[in-house]
Amino acid sequence: MSTPYDQEIEDLLALYQRQREEAAETRRQINEVTGVGIAPRQSVKATVTAQGEVTAIEFPTGAWRRMAPKELSEALLAALSQARAKALEQVAELTMLNLPSGVGVADLIQGRVDPTALLPEQPGMPDQVREYVENGPPEGLHRPG
């Protein structure tokens, strides 16, 4: 025996599952983000992941050979900073308006929060509702009409 709420409950559970799948896809996309920064005079090129991990440092020109150690260090830091900023911009675009209250882009980037953990596999609900979802309406409850 079904009730008028059966379809609504099914729709809500399907919506919840889509949200979980979207969260997992967002995590996958974040994991693929890289940012590239190039220092002035193209002396240093740096690539970082969304988490800030340095994946490449290149010296596309010979300019670094004429640089003092301090100048080269500053160029490297500038390229890394630019690369991180670009990676952050990409992550911010991926997550715009989809983050729950209290969760920031930095939390996702740093790996401190897994979006799928924000939406457990089974949605939270009162025991009575869970019993209804799992077992149907209690005996004696009839569909109106």
From TrEMBL:
<keyword id="KW-0175">Coiled coil</keyword>
<dbReference type="Pfam" id="PF02575">
    <property type="entry name" value="YbaB_DNA_bd"/>
</dbReference>
<protein>
    <submittedName>
        <fullName>YbaB/EbfC family nucleoid-associated protein</fullName>
    </submittedName>
</protein>
<feature type="region of interest" description="Disordered">
    <location>
        <begin position="119"/>
        <end position="145"/>
    </location>
</feature>
<dbReference type="InterPro" id="IPR036894">
    <property type="entry name" value="YbaB-like_sf"/>
</dbReference>
<feature type="coiled-coil region">
    <location>
        <begin position="9"/>
        <end position="36"/>
    </location>
</feature>
<dbReference type="InterPro" id="IPR004401">
    <property type="entry name" value="YbaB/EbfC"/>
</dbReference>
